[in-house]
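Input chain follows. Return structure tokens only.
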Amino acid sequence: MAKKQSFGDKVLAQKRDAKKMAKVVIAEKKPNGSYSYRHKMVHLDNLQSELAAAKNQ
């Protein structure tokens, strides 16, 4: 049997920080009146700038 790997606090903190992502859904109105949606995954640190850019479009 394989030995169970144990992780230190530093490694666990790096894994936890690496997975902080946010899903942004942007709705756009088409000329015919229907809506289309775009999905985008962004890192949590860049979320505010992505939201500001989406509002300006």
